[in-house]
Structures are given as structure tokens and as C-alpha cells.
Queue: 2 jobs
Job 1
Amino acid sequence: MLQHSSQPEPLSVSIEKVADGSPHDFRVALDGRTLDAEIELAADGSGWIRMGGKVVRFFGNRRSDDVQVWYGGQVYDFKKIDANGPNAAKAGGAMMPELIAPMPGTILRILVADGDSLSAHQPLIIMESMKMEMTISAPAVGRVKEITCSEGELVEMGALLVRLDHTVEDEEADE
Amino acid sequence: MFKKVLIANRGEIAVRITNTLQQMGIAAVAVHSEPDRWGLHVRRADEAYALDGETAADTYLRIDRIIDIAKSCGADAIHPGYGFLSENAEFAQACSDAGIVFIGPSPDVIRKMGDKMIAKTTLAEAGVPVVPGYWDEGHADVATLEKEAERIGYPVLVKAAAGGGGKGMRIAKDVKELRSGIDIARRESASAFGDDRVFLEKYVTSPRHVEFQVFGDSVGNAVHMFERECSIQRRYQKIIEESPSPALSPKLREEMGAAAVQAAQALGYSGAGTVEFILDASGAFYFLEVNTRLQVEHPITEMRLQLDLVRLQLEVAAGMPLPFEQADLNPCGHAFECRIYAEDATRGFLPSVGAIRHFDAPVGANIRLDSGVQAGDEVSVYYDPMLAKLAVWGQTREEALARMAWALRRFVVTGVTTNIAFMAAVLADPAFVRGVYDTHFLDSFRADGPAELPDEVLVAAAMLGREKKSTVRGAQSEAQTSTPSPWRDAGHWRSA
């Protein structure tokens, strides 16, 4: 399963080599559809896909479960999730449940409180780093579980700032 | 001419200066911080010396260390690039005290232009238009301020003398708003800064940022090299520039160019400088500031004039006169520059750090790349996240715009997030295409990401996410997938 960074639902994607085909022949299942493609993947992560009579170039970068694809001037970020794993059951389970400081800096303002419901891209925290103000926003719809920093605090890069909960609907259904 | 020049900078500008030095047969000396030890500017240089430390303050801003290195390696001049020490009068003075030529204007000019009030007064005295305003030194009464606002013309900006960051600042469209604005600004300022003095300034509606490249030499010549339109800004930083400006008529260009030369002459300016103006919708323009250095966006000027500004800087610094007069400068065609930043435009332009995996830039006639990085480099938290500048030239604006749009579409960077797709979206905006924009353009601009995921992307992602044989087998798998190069045996397919 693959979770695209801007889409709430993970996609079921599987790929297998065509048993009696050339080394480049693959069959890809995408949410119920099946596509046949010739794929050439070079050692540097770049490659070519021939599919439906069209040949295209792509560049890929994989770091453990993070897969990044450049195609046609756009970059797409995916997270690979185990179909049987704990995150797979919940949509959005692969979304960052914790927001960390992307740079070392000072927390200028905290715009939300514990328990607040959030809309996607809602600003949460304003911090200052490298003489620039930056806004840290909610990656998706959810709720603030816990704020773990305070205004005026100097934080290191990677410091935990906010714990989020993206499983709001599930919980509300349970209540 | 100099034999050896030290470049007190890093990244793309250090590489760009190195290129010109080497073409002129001058040895290029790099200095570098610890995180930059394998940087492109170090690898391209003829000699490189370490500035021990990581932060800018410990490295590229260390005047004493840089002068020591220049002396011990026998450099006869220092090029400061832009940023860091480039507009530091103390550094320019320290160079000259050490008998090393500072490539830039005199310490006195740098000092004057570094102080906004002095810069404004100096140039106003020289006849350069400045933003009209009124400075209330002695707690003027409201009636006086009303009269002054009338003279300046509404809308006016009421600013707290001690203010900053928007505190104690109000826009007033008429006398009624002025009264309440003064009241609020005074109250806010008194409580925040313990100072209730205010000043008035004309509020420029729909402002465009248009700057003129100027060049002076040590024998009193000064020319302008036409304008650069720099209104596409985020966080007060330019990201897309073009030349010529779509907003200037030939008459206005002539007026602004003359004002820029007037400024350079008034200062006795030597070397490369930029006179920045703010231009309103009616065509009125006001002096903003003088940048006493080479500007980031200088390539678009070079492309239109077929000049190498770094070479000219070196020649002027070596005491040579400018090799041309104003009438010899005839710019040709249209040029754009896009600044490639490692940042996420969808998350408030948050800088993105990490290792660059692919860095595959478009190439072709009339496409220029000034890059400070290459594939495999690490983008660190220590410095400005600008990776490179992409510039294109075309016979017409339309041609140049099409070329830039193509080049951005073809520019591959993976490993870190960049603003490439965001800039492509700006270039495709109908108002931008018509050339109708001001410095507020990006405030309201939203780039839509791709509407849906193309099948090709999903196929590529599936292929990249495919586990290798060894992974399926066992315990070492996790360590292996997290190594930086999981592609080594990508040709080794798992049998399905």
C-alpha cells in the first residue's frame, strides 16, 4: 500500500514481474485496475516506463519507507505502508502523528490549544529560525492531542512540538 | 590585474565568481565552514582553506580569520559576493588596512548606504525621488500632522518612530482615519516602546520593486545597466526576476535610469551597485535603498547586455576605467531568473534539509544555471537554502517565458523539496503572463498541486517500493533498506 502525502486514503498498489516476459515486463495492480508496463530502473533510481505506447522518464528516491517520484516537473511523495501492519487499518494512519521542529529556532506563537480540532493546513505554531518566521501547519484534518513546547522556548531541530491525532472520525464514532 | 583572489563566500555565488577568475587566469581561493568542506565552491577553487566552525557567525562572518587567510596565501584582493560581509564597512576597511583590495565600493559609501535614514537623506539631497513623508521630531500636534498628510497625499502610512514588525503602524485613507490612526499608533507605541512619536509616509498602493544596476569606476564614470523587475517575493525575498520590467515605458525607463546614475554619481560610486526603487501604479517611483554589492539576480542583466559583471568588478577594483559609456549599452531581448530554493511552498516556504539525490538541470542555448550544489550534496540548516539560479534569455518576453516554463518542467531535484513546481505555477498564472503584478502577488497566490496522480507516477512508486530479494529473506533487511544507496542491486529482481 502507498500513502500519497496529499491524499487521505492509502492506495493499494502491487507490482510483479511478468513470469514469461522480458526482465523489464511488469504487471501493476492499482486499486483494482491492472496495467502492463515495461520498466527500466537504473542504479541511480532514475528510469523509463513504457506503457500504453508512451515512453516516459522518471526519477525516484527511496529512503526506507519514504518513496519520492519526480515525473513531468512535479515531485510526488509517498509512504509505503504494510497492508497487514497496525497503520493500515486507519485511513491517514501514515500521516505524521507528531510535528517536530524542522529547524532549530525559537517558538514565537502557539495558535492552538490541547484538544482543538484542526482543518488541513491550519497554522499551529509560528517559529523563528535563520532570521525567518515560519508557520508550522497541520498536515491533515485532525485534533491537537498535546502541545509539548511553549512560547519563547528555544528548540533544537527535531524537537517534538505537537502530538496530533488524525483519527478524529473514528474516535467520534466510538464515543 | 590581480594574480590571486580570495572569495569570502559560499554556494552558487562563490562558484560563479570562481568561474570568471579562472577564465581570466586568476587563481581562485575558497574559504569554507565545516559543513561546506565538500561543497562545490571548494571543489572548483584552486586553493581552499577551512574556517573552523559551522554557523555563519563562526565562519563566513569572521573578518579576522578571512584576512589572515588572504594574507598567508598571498591573495591580492577579496571578493565578498553578496550577503555575509559584502556590505560590511568594517570588513572593507580591514581589507584596505591589510593591503588587500576589497572588491566593492569604499567603506565610507558602504557605511552611508547601510544606514537607511542617511541613505535616504543623501539621495534626496542629490535630487533622487524618495518616498514623501513627515518626520515628527518634536511631538507635533494633530493639526500639523493633518496638514502634512494633506501635502503627502492619501493614503498615508502612520508609523511609530520606535516601531517595528508592523506594531504601531496604520494605513489612513482620509483625515478621519488619520486621526484615529495617530491615536492608535501613539498608544501602541507608548505601551510597547515607551515612545509615542510617529511619522507619516506615503502609502504606495500596488507597489512594484524595480531596481537599476549601476556601475562606477575610480575615475568618476558612472552608468546604469537598465532595470530588473523583482516584485515576485515571498517573505520580502525575491524568487523570480525579469528584465526588462513589463511596467516601464521607454520614457519612465529613461527617467529612472537617470535617477540611478545621479545616485551613483552623488556617492562617487565605484564598482557594481544596485539602486532599488518602489514604483506605484501611476508610474511614480521612489528610492528604496542602494545595495553596495553584486546582486543575486545579476545574471539577467548579463544576458541582456552580453557582459560579465564580475569581470567588470575586478577591472574597476584594479583601477581600470569602465570600457564603455552609457550610449554603448544596448540591452537586447528579455531574460528571466528563477531562484531554486530547498523549501516547501505548500508549508509556508519551510526550508527543506537533507541529501540531494538527483540534481539534473535543463541545458540548452540561452539557458544558464548558476548552481552551488550537485547531486549527493547535503543541504544543511546553517545557511540560506537557495540551491541555484536558473536564468533564460529570449528574443521576446513570450519566448523567454516559454523557455523558462519548459526549463522548470525539465529540472529534476529529488531528496529535498524545492520550489520548482511552485515557480512553474506562478509563471503560468494569467496575470503574470500579462506582466500585471506587484509585490503583493504571492500573498494571495495559491499553487494547486497536481489534481490527480498519473498512472506513471504510481507505477514508478510501486517499482521503487518493491522489495529486493534480500529484504524478503531476513533480518539484515531493515539496515539495508536504510543505507543511502539501495539501488546497487536494483537489477536483481525478486521473482514473483
Job 2
Amino acid sequence: MKIKTNIQNLKNYKIQLRVEQAVHEFMKKKGYLKLDLPVMSPALIPESYLEIFETEFNYFDRKEKLYLTPSPELFMKRLLTQGIGNIYYLGKSFRNSEPNSSFHSPEFTMLEFYKVGATYLELAEQILEMMRFVSDKTPRSRSFVNKKLNNSIFYQGKKISFDKWEKFTVAEAFEKFAGIKEKELFNNKLFIKKVKEKGYKTKGFSYQDIFSQIIAQEIEPKLGINGYPAMLYDYPKEMSSLAKLSKDEKTAKRVEFYINGIEIGGCCEELNDWREQETRNKKQETKRKEYKMIDHKVDKGFIEALKYGLPDCTGAGIGFDRLCMVFANATSIDKLKLINIV
Amino acid sequence: MKTSAGSLKKGDFLFYQGDIWQIQKADFYSPGKGSALMKTKIKNLISGKNIDYTLKTAETTETIDVESIELQYLYKDAENLHFMNERTYQQYTVPLGVVGKATDFMLEGSKYFVYIHNDKPLTVRPQMNAHLKVIETEDAVKGDTVSGAKKPAKVETGVIIQVPLFVKVGDTISINPETGEYTERVKS
């Protein structure tokens, strides 16, 4: 890897600063408490789908492994169980084995926030409100103001208005964009049969893998391209192990949202059953061993905290770099940075 | 050659569904839940057709080692570009649709690198820059000093592109053959 100085990105970087300021302002206005959190932790929540960065604290004989946090979740949920109320974190998170590409970087900025008592659909509305707020606070060209395009931006030649969401349930989107019917989507066997017919490889792939592949190839490119950001909601429960289930018990209360085919973030109603979380952690831990991933210490205190009681809440995670990229009308997140490690 | 999909990059040649394809775009994609994916756009090197192709990064793919040899570009007809190896006089053809827009900036009689696999030509290796002479353009009007103003100019391959006002007939200019955009004046 190399250090690259990109002073030509100064204009985009300044837009990022404006977005950042607007987000802080919005969060304050809405009563969220800003958190400052560590990025190094002696233990993590096991996740079999993401690799972590490992480092070591050294002091004479004392040596201790530390890990860069892939998300601030473990700290934030601890505080929620203590009754801290609505909180947000805007800062760095780290994911190993995610090479630099248009929308990924091993080191990235995460906007994560939790609203106590809110449903996932209510929080989705607040995310939209935040984007409206940000769009009013970020600079735009004179021609833009003349056209009185309030609450909107231009991204890659397309007008995007934050006045409303274009909404699809996952089942609707699969039917409309991929020709997969609801009864096929919620039945593992029928699902595999259908995608095989469509020409996808299925051997050795899990339901989750194939699901993500269809989302990536056939659905995402159609989301958020008709003048509004799009939200996709009510995911099959297999796709949302940390979200609460809906009444039908087939879907989980999770939302992801998109602008011009790019996933920007999402939210879900947080599972607060510590037993389920513990079972899940054990499964993920076993999988990590099986995949020969970095063997980190599991955060047992997290489960202890959940036993104390996580309030009903919805948590949102937004790829802040991607959000800024959209407001800066840039095509990749590296175009916002003055220094890139590539 | 076996390659994991996670290592695929733009320009690689891929064996897929019995055909050879070239990767036009490869982007890492992590859905958060579920395995990481590579989202690619690949071009069929027979029909020139582009398709989206998403793979798991851990999947094994069959990539192809190719050699590139310098050939003389003879001419193009309605379907193909014709090349000749100046040493052996062997002739090769590459479908027009496979090379795409870059053919607009290829000059007959000039030499280009062509990718060859099993003695079959696959496609033309893209040039970083095409250096071409301007054969027709209007003189700049005095006093027209709007910065960034452009005018049309015809280059020696017969294609018209937008150039800055100071470019004159006889200048050699550099063009990005992928986008067809003027980059700089090489020689006046």
C-alpha cells in the first residue's frame, strides 16, 4: 500500500465538512447525545462475515491483544442498557479484508445512532428528514438555487429529492426486479430452484449468499434512480439476525436505503433478547474458527449488559463516506479524501 | 489459470460459459451480512456484449494468460478490424464491437498491441493516449477569451472532438481513447 496526497479533492473534502457539521446540528436538534468512543477494544462481538484488525498493547512484560472496532455497537448498546437515552457516534470503524474500491475502504467513517422507543419505519422517516436537513445546509451551485430545487441534490446528472422515500418491501422488489415471487422468496427450496433456473450458481452457497447476490446484481441497480432515495424493508428473517421479527415471523424489521443504486445505510429494531444474542454469538464464534479467521476474545460483558435489559429501540448505521460522496456528486469515496492509503 | 474472484481486476481475461470475456469493471462489495462479492461488468470478446456478473470473492474463476504482440493496423470494414504481423505477414481480425469507441482514434498503418490467446486475437490493448493530428478546425476568434471555451476539430482518423480554442490545424493532440476527450496539445 502507498500514501497518496490528493489535494485536488479539497473541494469535495470541504463538502464533507459541511455535511458533518449539518449531521451534528441535526442530531443535537433531535436530542441525540454525541458519543466519543474507543476504537481499540480487548474483546469484540463475533461476526463471521467480517474480518478485523488486530494490534497489541506492550508494556514491559505486559502484552495484551487489542482489536480495532468494526462498529461501535458493543459500546453503544452497553450505554443503552444503562438508560443513557438517544445516542449517536460519528467516527472511524475498521474492517479488514475489504479492499479499497469505489464504496469500500478498510478504514471508514460510520454514523451510528439509536433512538429509544422508535420503530424501524419511524427511524427511516427521521433518516429522510436528516438528508433533507443536510441538503439545505450543503453548498450548491447558483443555477441550482435559481431552480428552487429545495430538499434536492443532483447526483451524477440525476435529481434526487428528499421529500419522500420510494418504498419497496423486499418481496415487492424481488417480484418487480428479479421475477421471484413471494412464495419462492420465503421458501428455501423453491428459492434455490428458481435462482438456479435464472442461471445462478447455487452449489455450496447459503440462502444468505444467494440472496445478497440477487440484491447486488438485479435489485440494487434499480433502487433510488427515479428522483427519490429508495428504501427496501421487511427482510427475510435469515437476513437480519439482530433485528426483531414482524408479526408474520417471516420478515424482520429492517430497512436499507439506496441512492442511485448505492446502498447508503439502514436501520433495524434491535433484538433485546440476551439468550438469542448469546446463541447467535456462539454460532458466529464457531464459524470464525471454521473459516480460520483472527481468533479474538469474545465480549462476554456485552451479553451481561443485555441481561440488564436493552430498551426497545431502533439502531441505524450509515456509511458516512458514501453519504458525503452523494452530496459531493463524487463517484467513489476516495474522491473525498486529501490523503488516501491505496 | 485458477484465480479467486476477489482478485479479479479491470483488464483481466475470464473464461465463462464457454467464451472468453474481458473485465471492464470489478468492484468489491460487502453486503454486511453474507459473503463478500465482486460485482463485475464483463465484455464478451466475440459479440462485444456487456453483462453484469456478480461472484462470491472466495469463488474460483478461470482466468486466461494472454500475450500481447505489436501488429500493424491495416483497415476496418463493417464488422472487423484487420491487422498484420509485419514479420510473418500473418493477418488477424478483431470484431469492431469488441474494441468499441477506441477504434475512432486508431490510425490505419499505425502499430497497436493486440492481445493473443492460442494464436487467436482477442482485443486491442487500449492505448493510454492517442496522439493524432488536427486536420480541420476554425481559427480562434480574437477577443474570445472565455476560459474553458471549446470548439470542434477534426482529427486525422476523421473523427470530430471538442478542443480548446488555441488548437490549430497541424497540431498534434493527445486524446483519451476511452472517453474521446482531449487531454493536451503534444506538438504545435
